[in-house]
Structures are given as C-alpha cells and as structure tokens.
UniProtKB/TrEMBL annotation:
Biological classification of the source: Bacteria, Pseudomonadati, Bacteroidota, Chitinophagia, Chitinophagales
Protein task: Involved in protein export. Participates in an early event of protein translocation.
Annotated compartments: Cell membrane
Keyword Transmembrane helix in record: yes
Record protein name field: Protein-export membrane protein SecG
Biased composition (Pro residues): 95-106
InterPro entries: SecG
Gene Ontology BP annotations: intracellular protein transmembrane transport; protein secretion; protein transport by the Sec complex
Length: 112
C-alpha cells in the first residue's frame, strides 16, 4: 500500500511541476510556446484559471497523500524489530574485567 502511495505522490509531483512550468507569470514562460492554440480556442482567462486551479488541487493531493501514507508505515520495521530498551540491552552485557598492573611494575607506595 505504501508503494502505491509513493507512485501516486511521484506522479502528482511531476504533474505539478508541469503545471507550474507552463503557467504564464506576467508574460513569457512555456505557455507562450505551447499555449497558442489553447488560447485561441478557450481564451486566455480560462487557461490561466485551469492551470491555477490544477496547481492548487495537485498541491492539496500531494499534502493529503503524504499525511495519510504515514499511517501505513510499519512501526516495527523502523526499529529493526527490537523490543528491548537501551537499559535492558546494557544490563545484559557482561561487565569489563578490572585493569591489572603490568608485570614488573610496583604499585605506588602509600604514606601512613
């Protein structure tokens, strides 16, 4: 299910990028190159309205899909199926051996 959400999110991102690139912000842009025929048939006003509404709809779809996909993430997969806490893991480890002096060295004399 998570794979399906990922594919739909990527597809919506590509479409959103396309919609943003073909918009005509105060002249120029790619819409002047590709939109000549569309402007003659539908008119300039309807083309920009469709592109703007499409941008907002795709952005909302991406946001909703990202938020809902978090419900399908396996909680145990992120921790590697470890059920022990850090305290329990440390308690089960053996304690290190105490340090022993090197052979041939004398301990420091103590004053009485």
């Amino acid at each position: 299910m998570l794979l399906l959400f990922g594919i739909v999110i990527i597809l919506a991102c590509v479409l959103l990028g396309f919609f943003v690139l073909i918009q005509n912000p105060k002249g120029g842009g790619l819409s002047g190159t590709f939109g000549g025929f569309g402007n003659q048939v539908m008119g300039v006003r309807q083309t920009t309205d469709v592109l703007e509404k499409g941008t907002w709809v795709l952005a909302a779809i991406i946001a909703v899909l990202c938020l809902t996909s978090s419900f399908f993430v396996d909680k145990n997969a992120a921790t590697g199926n470890q059920t022990k806490t850090i305290m329990e893991q440390n308690a089960s480890r053996p304690l290190p051996a105490p340090a022993t002096p090197l052979p041939g060295t004398q301990p420091a004399p103590t004053k009485k």
